[in-house]
Sporulation and spore germination
Amino acid sequence: MRRLITPLAALLLLGAGCAPTRTGTLGPAPAGSSPTGASPTGTTPGTPAPGTSPGGRTPSPSADPTGPATAGTPTPDGTITVELWFTRDGGLVATRRTRAATLATSRLALTELAAGPSRAETATGMGTLVPPGTQVSRIVGGVATLVAPTGFATGDAATARLRRAQVVWTLTQFPSVRRVAFAGDDGAPTGRDDYADLLPPIVVTAPAVGDRITSPVTVTGTAEVFEATVSVRVLDAAGREIGTAFTVAACGSGCRGGYRVNVGYRRATAGPGTVEVYEVSARDGSRINVVAVPVVMAASG
């Protein structure tokens, strides 16, 4: 019996080791993180949240609750929400658009990407390098082939790469797209992991700039920070701190992990405010890698 079991176990291990890799998302961890910063049930700080790999990446787009899971899926009110990746400070930054539902989701996403950030988003430093006319000609086997307009490759190498990263990160939110090929380019199709170095230490996927929020507000994103600790505070229009919280990302120093935390705040009247996500410096305790998201806040008792 022992002689039969050993070969069987070896075959199972070999099959697991040869499983094909997939370009995952670096979206937020699945729901389940404690609003007080505790780790998800059944995990310890620094270990991946349920549904994520050791690198903090979800194994498939459907595991991302604020991005690919809903990308291309019309809501009951006849709208669809798409994730857009704009530029800021030479890297990538996430936002989203809710528009009338359509079957041409990739076309919608690229059109919005080319249209650029809103006035409020521009005020935070967001921009776009993608020109109008950028289209997908086909999607086969998880690879979307992009037909770029004349001038798509203009600029220096860093600019051209950032432009491609915008397209790749935006299109790969959809379950049918894992990689993007650029027509006329002899290079291999690329996926999100090929441009992961363009992400800042902290990415905020929710709330988005201009969102109307209520207390508690759910803050999600990814981070690669010291000891995986992500801090959040809510500020009123005068910059006064009216709510704070922290959490531990699924992975931290040396790897990127998803985070999710609920932050309560107290405010007597509705009005503008800011959700600020940051890392506490291990050197002097200051706030570093700050991401400020201007929002409209509902009153809270």
About this structure: The longest helix spans residues 2-17. The two ends are 68 Å apart (CA to CA).
